Amino acid sequence: MRQTLIAIDGPAGSGKSTVARAVAQRLGLEYLDTGAMYRAVTFAAIRRGIDPADAEPVGRLAAEVDIEVADAVTVDGVDATIEIRSPEVTRAVSAVAANPAVRRELVARQRLWAQARHGGVVEGRDIGTVVFPHADVKVYLTADDGERATRRSKEMLDMHYDQVAADIARRDHIDSTRSASPMAVASDAVHIDSTGRDIDAVVEDVLSLVAG
Ligand code: DC
Known about the structure:
CATH topology: Rossmann fold
Number of helices: 9
Order of helices and strands: EHEHHEEEHHEHEHHEH
Number of domains: 1
Bound molecules: 2'-deoxycytidine-5'-monophosphate
Shape: globular
Strand content: 5-15%
CATH architecture: 3-Layer(aba) Sandwich
Number of strands: 8
Helix content: 40-55%
Distance between the termini: 20 Å
């Protein structure tokens, strides 16, 4: 039996994770944070002393590393839930996400994840464009730059607002200009701007797309 597949894309701090998790819960679907997978590969590289920008060894690492992304994130059996959000991983993750070999491997894993569950709510940057171009519902979630930086700085307690804002701007630029699957809006995605809006209202917007 095929269930619904919902793709939620958008930049850092747009509210994607919160919305995707809530939508999954309301619909009784499972939720996958694909950004956590790119972060897990970055964490594994750093842990093994591999430069995250060194494309060839990082590509090989992505093919063999064991990653589990659920409420906790486990990398080769080690709980890395906290570490994958560290400034060190956050700084290095864009280079890993720009690596075509890493993307090929993680996209294949994301498709297997959804196949095994006959659907789900999948969140990332290229979900509606590349990973699941035939998703039932595609949402592109945004918020203005200031609000995205404010939200992220509440999560990144060890970084100041200015640092977070600069980091988001840098990552937006790398993520949207890389040659391998740049962040883009799918032509059939519904664009939702969460600026100044209550997250519950955004969740309702997404649910209305599923029902409709
Ligand atoms: O959503 P996030 O900040 O945890 O994502 C971490 C990085 O991974 C971010 O720089 C963009 C990248 N990413 C990606 O390229 N493709 C995805 N499907 C998900 C995340």
